[in-house]
Design goal:
alpha/beta, Oxidoreductase, oxidoreductase, 12% strand, KR_dom, 7-stranded parallel β-sheet, binds NADP nicotinamide-adenine-dinucleotide phosphate
Amino acid sequence: MSFAQKTIWITGASSGIGEALANAFVQQGAKVILSGRRVEALNRVAAQAPERCLVLPFESTDYPALPEVVERAWAWNGQVDMLINNAGVSQRSLALDTHLDVYRQLIEVDYMAPLALTQWLLPKMVERRSGHLAVVSSVAGKVGTPLRSGYCGAKHAVIGYFDAIRAEVEAAYGIAVSVILPGSVHTSVAINALSADGSARGQSDPNIENGMDVNVAAEQILAGLAERQREIPIAEGIEAMALKLRVANPEQLYSLTAQEGARLAAQREAGGSLDPSNIRSD
Ligand SMILES: NC(=O)c1ccc[n+]([C@@H]2O[C@H](COP(=O)([O-])OP(=O)(O)OC[C@H]3O[C@@H](n4cnc5c(N)ncnc54)[C@H](OP(=O)(O)O)[C@@H]3O)[C@@H](O)[C@H]2O)c1
């Protein structure tokens, strides 16, 4: 499938995976709606093809603003062919230390926000009997890993919502639904991840620094979307293995992640800093 002249709406387009997706879609001749909170960063992304980009900034958890945001997006070209719910925030803290508000924030940004935006756009796609909804979940949406209990919960939940939506609208209305499952991709995700008290972690970690190149990840995501794949894993090495083990031998996977948890618990008991997990993924 060609994306030329298609209208693609990407949230979290101001950095990382969303920015790389926006660049790739623009190169393929698409018209791209760029959303996020940082207007300057969105303008920088749009500068490569201003005539084919609409900068549409909004805070994704500002639910009362969504009806107008969706109207503006739709009015730009009279339709939206694809929505990629990509905006998100990760976590680096053990459950034992994590404030309840951090869980609430992760659920809002990583689950409620993509759900709410999709709820407003879905009726328009249903009316057209056409469209493609996508969400960037994670390997962590299939595999529970230490230091990410709130993130894993939200990323698991968002898969449940989109799988159920697919069951309702794919055959009935011809609307595709794709769930994207990246492993570690080299972006600012670890720097922006929430700590136990809700503050941004402020530093990256080796898993992410050595993660997949973001443009390679974007190319693979585009290839999956072009085929309207229902599930698009973007993972290598131990993360790809974890996805397979989750289905083939979950007991073995649980033992591996428990070993990782024991290592982190020992570090916590010793009062040291916590190394990011080996069974990882944001
Ligand atoms: N990198 C990885 O290893 C990895 C792996 C699996 C899944 N993911 C997922 O991939 C997605 C993109 O992450 P990334 O790696 O590209 O990290 P990133 O560079 O930190 O990008 C996060 C994006 O989300 C936007 N965002 C965050 N909170 C928002 C809010 N409240 N309202 C509106 N926009 C918000 C940010 O835009 P503003 O700051 O401008 O608002 C930014 O563009 C996330 O859903 C993440 O969970 C990443």
